[in-house]
Amino acid sequence: MNQISPALADTASEARQPDLRRVNSNPDFWYPVAWSSDVRKGKTVGVTFAGIPIALVRPEEGGLFALYDRCPHRQVPLSQGIVNGQTVRCCYHGWAFGRSGRCIDVPYLGKGKLPNGVRSYPVREAGGLIFVFPGDPEKAKTVPFPKLAQTDNPAFKTRHFSPRVNCHYTFMHENLMDMNHQFLHRRQMGQIKARFLGQDRGEDFIEARYSFMRSGGQQPLAERLIFGKHKDLNGREQPVEEVVTIRTEYPYQTLRITDKDGDLIMDLWAAYVPVDKDQRVTQSFGLLSVLRPKTPLLIDVIWPVLGWFTNRIFLEDKDIVEMEQAAWNEVGYDRNVEIFPIVRELRELLVRCGCPQDVKPAPEPEKKPA
C-alpha cells in the first residue's frame, strides 16, 4: 500500500478548508487605530488598517475626523498636511479637504470646478482610543460598538497597552484562548495547570472557562497582591479560587477573572488590528481593568509590579506567536495539528467571520467634484 507523506497529507487537508492565516480581518467592524492622546488639537496622525492609509485629523474646535491618507492630486499623505479650521490642507499644493472628504479649495484654481475628494471614515472615541470603521460606512450605524473593559467604572483602575507583533492576528486569538500553554510561562508564574471548566458558543462568539491549580513554585507577587495569597495545600489539589473566562466575540477578545463568589476582579479587552496589506503584522490595543483593593492607594503601589509582570508574560507570548508566523512563512500554509476542541471551534469562527484573501476588497471610492 502506498504511503502518503506528511507534507502531502498536510497539503490535502489544507486544500479542503481555507488556510486560517489567509483569512483577512473583516473590515465591517469598529477597529482601534490610535490612542486619543496621540492626536493633539490642530494636528494630524497617519495610521493604517490592512495596508489602507488613514489620516486622523483633530481640529482646534470640533471632533476628530478620518480621511483616506492620500491627496488625489499627487498621492502625498494628507497626514503630512496642515489643519486649517475644519479642513486639512495637503502639504504640497495646499488642496483643502473637509470632514466629509470633499475637496473644498484649490488655492490656484480660482472659481473653476473643484476636483474629486477622498473617502472619509466613520470615527469614534471611547476608552482613550480612536476607532474607525474601515468597511461599508452604512453598516457603521448598526454594527454594535464594543464594551471596553471597565474604563467607565471608578471601582477599577485601567492600564493601556499597544504592542506591535509580527504575526497574523489569528495567532493572537489562539494564544489567549488556549490556556494549556502555561508551561511557556513557568519562569514567571511557577508550575500551574489549567483546568477546563466548560464553554459557550454562538454565531459570532466562542467562550472558554478555566481555573488553575498550582503544582509547584511560589505564587508570583503581582498575583498575590491582586487575588490574595493562595494557601499551600501540601500537594493536594487546589479548589477553584478564581474563574478565568476568555471570549472571542469577533473581532475582539476579552479575558475576565472572577473570584469564587462570582465577583469581577480583572477585565481585559483586546483588539488585534492588521497593519500591512498581507496582514502579517498586527497592532494590538488592550485595556486591562483591575479592581481597586479596599485599602486606599494600594492599587497605586502595586501598579508598577503589575505592569512589569504582565509585560514579562506578554513578551513570552510575543516571541512564541512570532515563531509560529515564521514557521508558516517557511512553507506558505498552515500545518498546525490542533487537538484542543475549543481552539478548533475558535478557528472555525475566525474563518466564518473573516474574509478569505481571494475575496477582492472594493477599491477606495473617490468623492465627486463639488
Which key terms come to mind for this protein?
370 residues, alpha+beta, Rieske Iron-sulfur Protein, Naphthalene 1,2-dioxygenase Alpha Subunit, Chain A, domain 1, 2 domains, 8-stranded antiparallel beta sheet, 4-stranded antiparallel beta sheet, 6 helices, 21 strands, 31% strand, globular, disordered N terminus
What does this structure look like?
InterPro entries: Cholesterol_7-desaturase, Rieske_2Fe-2S, Rieske_2Fe-2S_sf, VanA_C_cat. This is Aromatic ring-hydroxylating dioxygenase subunit alpha. It holds the Pfam family VanA_C. Residues 30-132 form the Rieske domain. This protein is of the alpha+beta class. The chain contains six helices and 21 strands. The chain has helices at residues 6-16, 169-177, 186-189, 221-227, 298-331, 341-353; strands at residues 23-24, 31-35, 43-49, 52-58, 65-68, 82-84, 87-89, 96-97, 103-105, 120-121, 123-126, 129-132, 156-161, 164-165, 191-201, 205-216, 242-249, 252-259, 264-274, 282-291, 355-356. Strands 13, 14, 15, 16, 17, 18, 19 and 20 form an eight-stranded antiparallel sheet that branches. A four-stranded antiparallel sheet has the order 3-4-5-10, with no helix packed on it. It has a four-stranded antiparallel sheet with strand order 6-7-8-9, with no helix packed on it. Strand 8 and strand 9 (103-105) form a beta hairpin. Helix 2 (169-177) packs antiparallel against helix 6 (341-353) and helix 4 packs across helix 5 (298-331). The longest helix is centred in the last third of the chain and has 34 residues, at 298-331. It starts with 5 loop residues before the first helix and ends in a 14-residue tail after the last strand. The model is unreliable at 1-15 and 359-363 (pLDDT under 50).
